[in-house]
């Protein structure tokens, strides 16, 4: 529907999502571009993640970005096609004798987890009590715990992990953080549209068509190149915060 608008919640997950980055991050830029192909303007409401999820779940807004599909979330939301696919690795400090083939091999390592995140590849082992872990704090905090020796390893997706290493660590710290060569998981992230939204099915269909178009016309690939060259590392003028997006 040309000239329509959609209201979505968003949060802090740089460089993919952020109120403070250019175009609100790589993921936000993709979502806006896909909807724009269909004549839809995106309005964002940036919130802490729990509130962002809840407001979308109850239908206060149309949906929220960007989430891994789970059975629990499917009770309340419809999922678009995958917007971003990213590989997940363990990160550790140089000198750590880290080798693993099965989850049983991980038992001797303390894993640092973000308490606000889902870890599908680890969930069964976590539920079974087969892993030694601590949960609390955001991804950046987990890297700091690795550096301080408070945890041995932390799982991060490649886009986020490499961004944090580039932007939050000193050159000396960057030199001692290593990424495992083994892929832990491949994550797919989606726009979630609330089943309580008035036009839920319409929004999913509209977005999927727009996403296919930007993949076909090269806009998606252009945004990916901008991610790789560091465009979405850049922060916007904080004086602009609070203005309509």
Question: Rg from C-alpha positions?
Answer: 19 Å
The structural domain count equals 2
CATH architecture of the largest domain: 3-Layer(aba) Sandwich
According to DSSP, the number of beta strands is: 10
Helix/strand order: EHEHEHEEEHEHEHHEEHH
Could you name the key traits of this structure?
disordered C terminus, D-Maltodextrin-Binding Protein, domain 2, 10 strands, 2 domains, alpha/beta, 245 residues
Summarize this structure briefly.
It is built from nine helices and ten strands.
Structure description:
This protein has helices at residues 26-37, 49-57, 71-74, 120-127, 139-148, 158-168, 171-176, 200-217, 219-228, and strands at residues 4-10, 40-46, 63-67, 77-79, 84-93, 110-113, 132-135, 153-157, 177-179, 185-194. It has 245 residues and is an alpha/beta fold. The chain folds into two domains: 4-84 and 188-240, 3-Layer(aba) Sandwich (D-Maltodextrin-Binding Protein, domain 2), CATH 3.40.190; 86-186, D-Maltodextrin-Binding Protein, domain 2. Strands 1, 2, 3, 4, 5, 8, 9 and 10 form an eight-stranded mixed beta sheet that branches. Strands 6-7 form a two-stranded parallel sheet. 35% of the residues are buried.
Task: Describe the secondary structure blueprint for this structure.
Layout: E1 4-10, H1 26-37, E2 40-46, H2 49-57, E3 63-67, H3 71-74, E4 77-79, E5 84-93, E6 110-113, H4 120-127, E7 132-135, H5 139-148, E8 153-157, H6 158-168, H7 171-176, E9 177-179, E10 185-194, H8 200-217, H9 219-228
Parallel strand pairs: 1-2, 1-3, 6-7
Antiparallel strand pairs: 3-10, 4-10, 5-8, 5-9, 5-10
């Amino acid at each position: 529907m040309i000239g329509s608008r959609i209201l979505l919640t968003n949060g802090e997950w740089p460089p993919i999502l952020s109120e403070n980055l250019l175009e609100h991050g790589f993921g936000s830029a993709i979502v806006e571009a896909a909807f724009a192909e269909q004549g839809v303007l995106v309005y964002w409401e940036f919130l802490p993640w729990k509130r962002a999820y809840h407001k979308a779940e109850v239908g206060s807004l149309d949906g929220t970005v960007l989430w891994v599909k789970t059975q629990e979330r499917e009770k309340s939301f419809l999922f678009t096609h995958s917007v971003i696919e990213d590989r997940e690795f363990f990160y550790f400090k140089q000198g750590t004798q880290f080798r693993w083939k099965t989850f049983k091999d991980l038992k001797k390592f303390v894993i640092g987890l973000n308490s606000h995140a889902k870890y599908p590849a680890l969930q069964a082992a976590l539920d079974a009590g087969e892993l030694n872990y601590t949960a609390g704090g955001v991804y950046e905090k987990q890297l700091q715990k690795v550096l301080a020796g408070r945890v041995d390893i932390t799982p991060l997706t490649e886009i986020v992990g490499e961004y944090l290493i580039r932007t939050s660590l000193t050159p000396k710290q960057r030199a001692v953080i290593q990424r495992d060569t083994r892929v832990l998981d491949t994550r797919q992230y989606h726009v979630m549209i609330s089943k309580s939204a008035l036009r839920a099915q319409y929004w999913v269909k509209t977005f999927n068509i727009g996403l296919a178009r930007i993949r076909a016309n090269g806009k998606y690939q252009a945004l990916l190149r901008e991610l790789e060259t560091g465009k979405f590392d850049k922060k916007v003028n904080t004086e602009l915060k609070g203005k309509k997006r």
